[in-house]
Amino acid sequence: MPPNKKFKYDDSFIQFGFIVINSGGEEKPQCVLCHNVLESSSLKPCKLKRHLETNHSSLQHKGVDFFQRQGQTLKNFRLDGTGMFFKENVAGLKASYEVSREIAIAKKPHTIGEQLILPCCKIIMSNLLGNSELEKLKQVSLSNNSVMRRIADMSNNILLQVVSKMYNSKFKFFSIQLDETTDVANLAQLCVYVRYVHEKQLEDEFLFCEPLDTTTKAKDIFNKVDRFFRLYDLRWEHVIGVCTDGAPAMLGCRSGFQTLVKEKSPNAIGTHCILHRQALMVKTMPDKLSCVLTTMAVKGKSSEKSLPFKKEIQEFLRDRKPELHSTFTDNSFLMLLAFSVDIFESVNFVNLALQGKEINALHSHEKLTAFNTKIVMWRSKLEKKNFAPFPELDQFLDDNELEANDDIIEVMKQHMFILKSNEIQEEFIDMINDGGAKLLHRDMSCSDFWIEMGQSYPNLSKMALKVLVPFVTTYECEAAFSTLLNIKNKYRHRLDVVHDMRVALSKTKPNIDELIAAKQVHPSH
Fold first, then answer.
1. Where do the structural domains in the chain lie, given as residue ranges?
2. SS3 state of residue 418
């Protein structure tokens, strides 16, 4: 027997009052008057005309325009994906998700959607499009509970995407940085970022920010991270780097967090945040120089701002605080103050260079090596009484026709020695590559280069990335705490910030279409 013949709908069938509907993968005719769906074998002009004449004889002489209007109305009220009802509600649900995401990114209260955004949209639409269009806004739900649910949905979607990237990475290993702080409700919050290789680049991504339920001891912090790892099937042996601050709970040699991590992953690199180490280094200085800075700090003056207004400050102290006037007119004091301004300007420059996202060990090593080289040069200049590297000090000596005595220079040299002795040593892998690889290295960042070399030199690439992937600062956690303060303030002190923080800080965008597809579309959702 020949195969069953398939009939196709023709646009001319509308003259008989029929449109097409897909059912079970087949095209079937649907009457626009009684809404009955006929078999696909009825897709013949004679059968469609017979239905019109038999069932709707009073309307058989209506024109094509009449049947087209009836057909469009029927299409609009279909509940499947082709109906206007479905499309409008999907559009409203998508708008609700996207506005909720913007609310989270802006760190605003969830109530702002219903209290401010929606009323403003109504004002704009009524003025530009007329009141007839306001009905469409009813499809967009921005109530407090709706916004909260949208943010939670997007947060979970983002987290699953991040975990999936970690699973599917060519290099299975990753590193974490973590820090803890206390929020406005006096609740300890633990923040964790992760760095991994995704496709052909390194990615830094927010992992979670959750409260510590008991204390902030190393064991509590480890248990919190361990529970998260077990929940999402992340393995400790894949952790190759852990960066924390210098608190005993983090760096304790017997029971610190890094020690507990190394029990699970012996090859993990434990890093003390370079920014914190630099801050500790700068605090160490000779007594005389420390005394100068303490004097300025106690009196509420910034050394950088005080020096240009030396004369004004001297006049003020002479009239208001004579006991301090002699200190601020002492040339030795002012020389050390000028020296401090120059030194801290250089330190601040290095500190800013170490801050930011995607900072790795090689970048930090370059900046610190350059700074230490400068220190050696500055020390040799001081021995020759050459103050050119210290512009504020040099200008002060020239303006007042003064010379720094040996005692003052010795204090400065001592500070140079202290800075140099705190040099941060890092171990790096010798880069061995061929001529073609050298050309690539010239045009690519260091991390991108070694990821690219993964196929040609898999073992060497893996070794190099184990140096590049670990964090060297906790900058991103520190920046996240600023977001925490904005989201959870005294007016929202009971808020659970887990989902808001992830949506606000993640680089990964939520797959809103996937979320909509998983929902039953209804304006109350």
1. 11-76, 278-421
2. helix
